Amino acid sequence: MDVEEPYILNEYRSYDDWGPQRVPEGAYFVMGDHRNNSSDSRHWGVVQRDDILGRVTVRWWPLSQGRIF
Predict the structure, then answer these.
(1) Is residue 7 part of a domain?
(2) pTM value > 0.85
(3) 59 lies in a domain?
(4) Residue 25 vs residues 22, 29, 42, 61: alpha-carbon distances, Å
(5) Ordered DSSP codes for the chain
(6) Burial readout 24-36 (b: 16 or more C-beta within 10 A, e: otherwise)
(7) What is the number of domains present in the chain?
């Protein structure tokens, strides 16, 4: 299945023929912003929910939906 991603510039797109992959319950598949030059779940697998730390304080993108939490 192809996903439309108009927000990714052509120079950052990855043209790898990768996937599909089933993501288990309680895990996340993460991808970097520069898809063609990122170390992400395509290389080291899914991330377990218990391994994710942090709190959102500001959302700045897209600009029209910027918000302080």
Answers:
(1) no
(2) no
(3) yes
(4) 9, 11, 18, 27
(5) -----TTS-GGG---------PPPTTEE----SSGGG--SHHHH--EEGGG------EE-SSGGG-EE-
(6) eeebeeeeeeebe
(7) 1
**Using 50, 70 and 90 to split pLDDT, how confident is the model at 34?**
confident
C-alpha to C-alpha distance for 15 and 38, rounded to whole angstroms? 13
- 64 is a domain residue: yes
Residue 63 domain-assigned (yes or no): yes
Domain that holds residue 37: 22-68
CA distance 40 to 31: 5
